[in-house]
């Protein structure tokens, strides 16, 4: 067992993540049926399979977030805690979109500090009364995790604020990152205490817990797990500045479904996966997925909505109408513009004030008439930036009011306090326009709330006859902007344009305002939080439907850990399994790929070693063996390298050229020997090579290949698709196949593939009375899959006897049509050496 002490970053590399705090007593598991649950020790093996007996319990969703949807207040006598649901919390209303019989369990921390001596009592109360599991973070972790890494580093980075200077945003601090990891591990321990991995879904929320998926996937390979990011995801140029960028990215990919508010955020995430991990996404029947080690990680794009019932409940309160009357009297004869924002450097409050100032300058008719009511909620974070923006806002308010003040009129009404939902609804009801000028925001539901409040209640007779209208001026950089097609979108940095937008909004004809309002209300009322929750959960169910049918392997250390999902029959090729069949066989066919199979792909020197030459020569020396090297390389290099192996068959350029032994002539196996099409393909490839920095052309005797591995990933991929279409068009009447592969586009003659090589050799051996009863085929890339497929079908087609021992083997654990795998080229050589030792030289 590894020590729990944490002294250096080697712990992170080895997967023994730091806890950095006192161990808390575990809560009992939440049980729905009688039974005994054994605890899982943190230091046991890295992966716990989900192959345990299924529980009789119904499905349950465990919602994990930084904070529980709970309000906790100290009682007046200071002897106990008063706990209640936080009706304003989004998490609380997720259950509205879930199946009625689904149990919901919450895991998170409280917003208040609880003394360690009271934590057990509070935890039990939360579990019994609210089905909430509290994660109490030690103060030294909480400060660095939340106020440090989350608020001073990740939050600014995800909102496009880079710390170019020490005084401008928080720079990466390794101790903050360690605290972030430690906090995520504490959350994972709480999940482990209550989870039934075969029946439960886990839904993780927001950037505070982005490495939690790795902790949970290490413990439960088949866990059904979703993640939703409620903040923006930055462009790859910004994200790649984060020193732990790959750790976070790989951890997120351990979830089954990753959700974003907008396509822009999802696109940035997919771009990062492509540039840093080489992953390509696919869109199929409207769903976006990333192939990651045999798993398909779903990408969900769905903006969150508001809780309609909650807002309607606020609108129905009696004091709301009284407040509306008071406000109408206060702003009688005035046109009210409204801003409701948190005190945050990204909310653009001062830009809104500057736009209002510009409006009054450019359009004097609004002086004495237009009023901007700006409500600012207390800041969630703290720091120098918050204090600076506060001072800037106060200075702007004072300057604008001093400049345009008239008797009984101040253009800016600044409310710097927490406003109750009822009071906020009253302000919404009297505002002609709401302006949101955030420079970056994940979603922002203020416009949605405004639209519903302007609509009012359907049973409200006093307002049902009057037409409903509302106007919105929203920043194009906020998550709700794409869904509000009737809003006036602005670049908040352009204060003159924003001022014109404000003027347009309050000057617009009532009929136009009504039409825009009706369009918005129809969307907002149907796409509420229940709709969002239901849509996400349905996609999570769909993504996870095959979890328990697949064979899963946990591989990798620390945040490099991932689950490889494989066919249930896919297993490692062992010496015992193959030696027995090899020894009994009377006629053997052996197919070997070269690059990535016999020689590592990363090797600079591609020449075969003396060991490889000796092993292959020994295998070829057995009369029972027909050994073929099947490669995409040219025939000249292969025949030169393997000149000592006189009995070795070679299929070069994927089988276009074939030679049974060194004493035989080369055969051409394509459907046509006319290579005139090369003169058409070459100029096209040269054109794209000149336009794509980092790309190159490889000319073979029978084919031509365009490589873009060293080009910009996004541009190279785009150019390859364009080239593929271009080549298919100009070569439509030529006897060639145009194919795309991993960072390549290849044009080669029709009727050429490694699979056809295997078919030809099987047929020839059978005709010569040597039908193989033992077949070994080892390869590592996409072209070898054609061989695996042909070999797998050969028995069914009668090409091979039903008694034939077939060993189709790929290199590395990955999705493949082969039934076996070996971990690397070293294991391939070791396996071949074992077979060579059992071979009988022909002279004996």
TrEMBL record:
Keywords: Glycosyltransferase, Phosphoprotein, Transferase
GO MF annotations in UniProt: alpha,alpha-trehalose-phosphate synthase (UDP-forming) activity; trehalose-phosphatase activity
This protein's GO CC annotations: cytosol
Top EC class, one word: transferase
A GO biological-process term: trehalose biosynthetic process
One Pfam family of this chain: Trehalose_PPase
Reaction(s) catalysed (UniProt annotation): D-glucose 6-phosphate + UDP-alpha-D-glucose = alpha,alpha-trehalose 6-phosphate + UDP + H(+)
EC number: 2.4.1.15
Superkingdom of origin organism: Eukaryota
InterPro entries linked to this entry: Glyco_trans_20 (IPR001830), HAD-like_sf (IPR036412), HAD-SF_hydro_IIB (IPR006379), HAD_sf (IPR023214), Trehalose_PPase (IPR003337)
Similarity remark: In the C-terminal section; belongs to the trehalose phosphatase family.
PANTHER family associated with the record: ALPHA,ALPHA-TREHALOSE-PHOSPHATE SYNTHASE [UDP-FORMING] 7-RELATED, TREHALOSE-6-PHOSPHATE SYNTHASE
Protein name per Swiss-Prot or TrEMBL: alpha,alpha-trehalose-phosphate synthase (UDP-forming)
